Amino acid sequence: MKDLGTIREEIDNIDGQIVRLFEKRMELAHEVAEFKIRTGKKVFDREREKSKLEALKALAGNDFNRHGIEELFQQIMSMSRKFQYQLLAKENLLGEIPFKPVDDIRMENVKVVFQGVEGAYSQMAMFEYFGRDVDNFHVDTFRDAMAAIREGKADYAVLPIENSSAGSVTDIYDLLTEFDNYIVGEQIIKIEHALLGIEGASLEDIRTVYSHPQGLMQCAKYLDEHREWKQISLQNTAMSAKKVFDDNDRTQAAIASKTAAGIYGLSVLKEQLNFSETNSTRFIIVTNKKIFRKDADKISICFELPHASGTLYNMLSHFIYNNLSMSKIESRPLEGKNWEYSFFIDFEGNLNDSAVKNALLGIKEEASDFKILGNY
Ligand SMILES: O=C(O)C(=O)C[C@]1(C(=O)O)C=C[C@@H](O)C=C1
After folding, report:
1. Which residues line ligand 1 (CB under 6 A)?
2. DSSP designation for 153
3. pLDDT (tens digit, 9 = 90+) per residue, 122-141?
4. What are 292-342's pLDDT values in tens digits?
5. pTM value?
6. Is 44 a catalytic residue?
């Protein structure tokens, strides 16, 4: 049996050869990039990579090595692409990121829209972000709010995107891809739900509970103790409070804020309904302009990927390679394309950083329907 020292010497020898070959390969990637700069051909050639991987895998002697070869060469070609993007970027051939840096987001003389009615959590988030005196109006649906921004009827919309206990508000993700609107800020507020009924009603009277689906989810544990209550989803927690007041029926209750109780003259039948004491919702501030604050430090993007092994891994490698830290990933099914998804990613950075530009321009080249949702 060979001793460990001798085996390691052989491994070192082989690794040295791999490094030299890798560097030779990267020199060829440089030549490829020059060819592509001259001819305008795209860096990423999915078909070429697929046929290369098949050919290389066929050279391997067993399944374990076949898998290893596949992973190894996926990485090598991914590095080759990233190197080529850097060379194209130097020649200004990757295009600019079409967002305008601004010192500050305009807060004076602006009109803001939120979804729901007086007393909605979105209204609280709006007051928190823009101040109590802000000129504002409300609409029935998230779509109406997005349309008001697109049509310039409002400068900004305040929309809930994620709750700390119930998760993402998926409708908002879908609307962000559909509309040409962009995120310029965010506001997190603590959410404390209460059970509200009409004056004189008591817990024993209740048969039906109204709220936004997120309100019902955030209070799921409490509602589980009252399985005899019928749960009905409405567009907004404050709209639910308004309905209970309008119907004036002691068997109805709403899950909404205590502020909504005050506005609609309802009684608080039970406080602290949400199961998480730190229950909070993150709201986004949306506008129709492609702008970002110079000191913004969070970027949201989305893109679609074909249903093939390694595609998401490839996209994420742009973050790893450029040393960018991801804070969230979310996926939404694509309409009419079963089991294909749109991916939404939040990560730290500013659109002016060169690492961010490199990562985004690489992703733009390799994914379809890439969109920068905002830097805030
Ligand atoms: O052959 C090319 O067109 C290259 O750019 C080289 C290479 C590789 O490294 O093998 C890199 C990127 C392409 O997606 C395909 C292959």
Report:
1. 29, 32, 43-45, 48-49, 52, 77, 80-81
2. S
3. 999 999 999 999 999 999 99
4. 999 999 999 999 987 777 889 889 989 998 899 999 999 999 888 888 899
5. 0.85
6. no
Residue 283 designated active-site: yes
Between 3.40.50.720, 3.40.50.2300, 1.20.59.10, 1.25.40.390, what CATH number should domain 1-94 receive?
1.20.59.10
Class of the domain covering 296-376: alpha beta
Query: Contact 255/221 with Cβ under 8 angstroms?
Result: no
- Do the domains at 100-189+280-293 and 194-270 have one common CATH topology? yes
Q: Outline where DSSP puts E strands in 132-276.
A: 135-139, 156-163, 167-168, 182-190, 194-197, 208-211, 230-233, 252-256, 267-270
Which top CATH class is 194-270?
A: alpha beta
Ligand 1: residue whose CA is nearest its atom 16: 49
- Which of 30, 35, 41, 43 gets mutated to test ligand 1 (max ligand atoms within 8 A of its CB)? 43
Q: How far is the CA of 81 from the centre of ligand 1 (A)?
A: 7
Interhelix angle for 142-150 vs 170-178, to 10°? 30
ipTM, 2 dp: 0.98
